[in-house]
Predict the structure.
Amino acid sequence: MEVQQALLELYRTVFTYPAIDNHAHAFLKVEHRDAVPFEGLISEASGPALTEDSVHTLACYRATAQLGKLFGLSSTADWEDVKRARKAMDYIQLCRMCMDPTRIQCILIDDGLGNNDLVYDYQWHDQFTKSHTRRIVRVEVLAENILRDLIPLELESEEGMHIPHLAHNFVVRLTAELTACATDPEVAGFKSIACYRTGLDIAVSQDGREMEITLVTIVLRYESLKTLRLADKALNDYVVNTTLRIAGQYGKPVQFHTGLGDNDISLSKSTPALMQPIIKAYPSTKIVLLHSAYPFTQEAGYLTAVYRNVYLDFGEVFPFVSADGQRDIVKQVLELCPTNKIMWSTDGHYWPESYYLGTLQAREVVYQVLEASIRRGELTLPQAKGIVKRAFFENANKVYNLGLSPCEM
């Protein structure tokens, strides 16, 4: 087969094969469509760094051109033109305009992002896909909700607060709720944001006394501030270990935020290289490293190559990273990572445009990287097509036990 004909067939496969979005978040409700700065589409920054600086990135310039074309704007349209155009559209029409070209067949939605009053329920998104949307349960949020229920009951009891009793009830309830989620067909897997809270250097050994001391701190903070956020290492590590144990028993994957995130993260503790002890401790549990672990992609690729239970998601870098950066990231993913262990996601959130850009840019970059390999004689066409089908659909279908067949889109 001539090279040009092979590349044309590869192009068709890359841009038409259905996809499973293995990690995303919900859309904003129509009445809240402008509740969050739209610049969050192209940056993880916050405050002036988001609204003033992010619009001067290569990622923003590229997104502006691609959305301007989608919305039928002139080639000279700027970021503000894009914002005005989207605001003037009927919301469902906007959602369909963005979702129809993606060929996303199934979405796995992490519904623990927060601002739940602002966003739709995960099942609402079924109208844009051929297959039913499934949940990803964020375990730190689950644990926080349990403590919000238990702490007031302990404080109001006749005996008063008894930390060992609170700890026991927390352990029992956490185990029960994680097990219920693991056996729920609506739940495709779990997610941990330990990376944000206390870092990925998660301890395997558990100290019950240390956890009780941590609970004292949490209770005192709750009494004084009426807020509750799981950000104390002993308790966070316990939650993650319990999740990994139960998930392994029931065959549900556990996703971990790694690398790229907002300024709430400690970058030095966001590398998945810190996870080696926890990976070794739970060899029967499928662990998915999210977001390409950028800028630690090579470390993540190494872990995926040497540990049977580790998988690598190459999402979120679309559209947050420039086109050149995205090509380098995909190349780094493919340096070591077995192609039966890579999965794609949009990390789409709030705006339908995030799904559109996350898909369009990923397909463009995957094609460009594989095209170059074919031209150099490093890949055959069947090998390249196999990579595409596995990365966009087959691997996620198998890892999350979805039981889907690719649909004509």
In short: Residues 340 and 395 are 6 Å apart (CA to CA). The first strand starts at residue 19 and ends at 24. The longest helix spans residues 352-375. The mean pLDDT is 94.
